[in-house]
Amino acid sequence: MKEIALPPGALPAPADRAAGGLYGWIASLDHKQIGIMYLLVTFAFFIVGGVEALLMRTQLAVPNNTFLGPEAYNQLFTMHGTTMIFLVVMPMLIGLATYVVPLQVGARDIAYPRMNALSLWLLVFGGLLLYFSYLAGGAPDAGWFSYAPLSEKPYTTTTGVDYWILGLLATGIGTIAAAINLIVTILALRAPGMRLTRLPLFTWMVLVNSVLILCALPVLNASLVMLLIDRQLNAHFFAPQGGGSAILWQHFFWAFGHPEVYIMVLPAFGIISEVIPVFSRKAIYGYEFVAASTGAIAFLSLAVWAHHMFAVGLGRTADLFFAVASMLIAIPTGVKVLNWCATLWGGAIRFTTAMLFAMAFLAMFTIGGITGVSFTAVPIDWQVEDTYYVVAHMHYVLFGGTAFAVFAGLYYWFPKMTGRMLSEAWGKWHFWLTFVGFNLTFMIQHVLGLMGMPRRVFTYPDIPDWGRFNMISTAGAYLLGFSVLVFLWNVFASLRAGRPAGDNPWNAWTLEWATPSPPPEHNFDLVPPVRGRRPLWDLAHPERTDPAPARLSGLGGRGPAPRPGDEAAAGSLPRLGMLCFIGTEAIFFVMLILAYVYYHSAAHTGLVAARVLDSGRAGINTVFLVASSATLWLGAKSLEQRRGGALIAWLAVTIILGALFLVGQGREWLTLVRANVTVSRDLFGTTFFTLTGFHGLHVLLGLCLLALLFGLAVARRFQGPTSAAIEAVALYWHFVDAVWIGIYSLIYLWAVLG
Questions:
Q1: Residue 235 in contact with residue 679, Cβ under 8 Å?
Q2: Structural contact between residues 385 and 357, judged by C-beta atoms closer than 8 angstroms
Q3: Dist. CA 702–CA 710, nearest whole Å
Q4: What's the pTM value of the predicted model, to 2 decimals?
Q5: Which parts of this chain are annotated as the region Disordered (predicted)?
Q6: Which CATH superfamily is domain 576-753 in?
Q7: What are 571-603's pLDDT values in tens digits?
Q8: Which ranges of 302-352 would DSSP assign to H, the alpha helix?
Q9: Per-domain boundaries in the chain
Q10: pLDDT of residue 2
Q11: 13, 36, 214, 215: least surrounded by Cβ within 10 Å?
Q12: In which band, very low, low, confident or very high, does the pLDDT at 389 lie, cut at 50, 70 and 90?
C-alpha cells in the first residue's frame, strides 16, 4: 500500500495525557483501555463457563454416571448458559465495539467516557454478584431462562435465583449504557465526510445492534424486576397459585430472548464484513444490501419470539404467524451470506488465521441457520424442542457463528491493540483444533437429538449408541478446551516477543489503521478526510477512489458530523443520550403497563381499581405534575432571555410541585395499606404498586436532578442562552410527566369509566 499523505486541512489532535500502572487501567476513561478490559473480563468468564461445560460433558460422557448429582448439574447448567450469554458473548462484542468504533468513525474518544467506565464495572459487579451465589446458599438452578413457576419462591427457596436476577439487572443496565454510548458516538462524532452511507460495516452493524439492545434489554429488566418482586414481596406476577401466569413470563422472556440472539450475532456479522474484504483484496459486494438486511433482521427479530413457545399450545393462528415470521428472518440473513461469498469470488484470498476463522464462520453459521429454519415447521419443533437437537443448533449459531467471528476479529485487530502480531503458526494450530473440536462436540448432538435424547438432564439410560455418541461429544469438548489454551499461549508469547505490527499490517482501508499501533490516547494525530467507504484506499490511490455512494433518503443527506469538543457536538451529546435513555425507559414502563392490562382485563375475584382508588385526589396530583412541566419550560425560556433570577424561581416552583405529587402519592399508598390493599394481596395490588412505585422512583430521580440544576443556577453556572444540562433534564421530566398521564388514564380513568 502506498504511503498515506494526509492533507494540510486534516484536524490536529490534543496533547496526550499520561497514565500508567494498574491504577491507570482501573481508573481509565480511555475507550481503548476500557475495551481491552472488557475483553479481559469476558475472556476470564469464558474460561469459567468453559470449565462448567467440561464438567457437564464429563458427567454425560457415559450413561448413568454419578460424577455430578442432579442439583450440582442443574447449577452448572444454569450458570454455564447465563455466563456465556450475559457475561461472555454480548459484553465481548461490546468490548470490541468500544475499542474499534470510535477509531473507525474518526472520533477522539467515545461520547460519554465516564459512562463507558461505568458500563464495564457494572459488568464486573454483576458477574461477581452472580457467582457470589455459590457462597450464599447455592447457585441458581432454574435454567438460564428461569421459567416460572420453577423460579418462584415455593419451588426455589434458596437465594440463587435472587442473585441471578440482581446480577443480570446490573449487567443489563451496563449493557444499555454501553449501547447509548455507541449510538451517540456513531451519530454525533463521525469524522468530516463520513455520512451514514459511508460507515464501515462493523460500525453500521454495531449501530443497528445498539438500537436493538435499547429495544430488548428493557423487556428483560422489567421481567426481572417483576420476578424479584414476586420472590421478595410475595407478589403474583408469574405465580399461578396467586392468579399469576407462568406463560406470561415465557412471553416476556422470549420477547427479549430472541432479539438477544441477534444482539449476539449482528456485531459478528460486522467483523466478518471487515475481515473478508481485506483478505480478499476486494471491496464488499453489495454494501447497501448488507447494511439494509441488518435493519431487516433487527426489525423481524422483535416479532418472532413465540417460536420458542410452539410447545406451549398458543393455537393454530399464533403458531402460523410466528412460523412465517421465523421463515422470513432467514431471507436477510441469507442475503448477507451470499454477499460474503460474492466478495470471495474472484478475490486474491490470503488465508491468514483471521481469514480461516471467517471462512469457517460462513460454514458453521450456515449450518446453524439451516437447523434453525427447521424449527419453523411446527410439527418438527414439537418433536425436537426438548432434545439435544436444540443444543446443537444453538451452539452452531453462537459458537460456530459468533465465537468464530470473534476469534477472526481478535486476530485481525490484535496488532492494532498491542503493536505486535499474533503468531500465524500458533494461530493455525488454534484454528484447526477449534474447528475439529467444535464439530466433534456438537455435530453429533444433532443425531442424539433426533434419536430422542432430552436436554437439561443430568444423566441418561444405557440406550444403544447414546453412550458412544456422548463420549465422542465429550472428547470434542476437551479438544475444544485445549484449543483455548493454545490461543492463550499465542497471546502470551506474542505480547512478549511478537513481531512488530506497524500501523497497517493488513493493508486495510478503514480509519483505525491510520493511527499508530497501539493508538495514542487521543487516537489520531491527524484525522484523515473521508471521501468514500474505504478512506485509506482513497488516500493511497487518489486516482482510483471509490465512487461516492448514492444518497439514501434519511441517511446520506446530512453534512459532516461535529467533532468532539465542537460547540455543536457538545450541545447534541446530552440531548441525544437522554432521548436514547427515555426510549429504553418507555419500553420498561410499557412492560409494566402490559402486565397491569393483562391481569385487569382477565376475570378474577380480587380487588379492582374502582373499589379502592380515589380518582379525584389522584387528579389533583396529576395537576401538580403537569404544572411542573409548564414551570420547567418557563424556566428554560428564562434562561434563553438571560434572566437568572427567574430561572432560579421557576426551578424552585418545579421542585415544589414535584414534591407535592410525591407526597400525594405517598398518602394514597398509606391509605391503601391501611385498608389491607398491598402488593401481596392480589393481582391488582401487585400490578398497581409496581407500576406507580416505579413511576414514583423516576419522579424522585427527576427531583434530584432538578435540585442539582437549582444549585448550579444559584451558583450562576448557567451563563449562556442555552444549557445542554437543563435541556436534558427537561426532556426527562417531561417524559416522567407523560408516563403519569398514561398511568392516570389507564388506572384511574379506566376505573371510573369501567
A1: yes
A2: no
A3: 12
A4: 0.93
A5: 542-567
A6: Cytochrome c oxidase, subunit III, four-helix bundle (1.20.120.80)
A7: 578 999 999 999 999 999 999 999 999 988 775
A8: 316-328, 330-344
A9: 24-544, 576-753
A10: 38
A11: 13
A12: very high
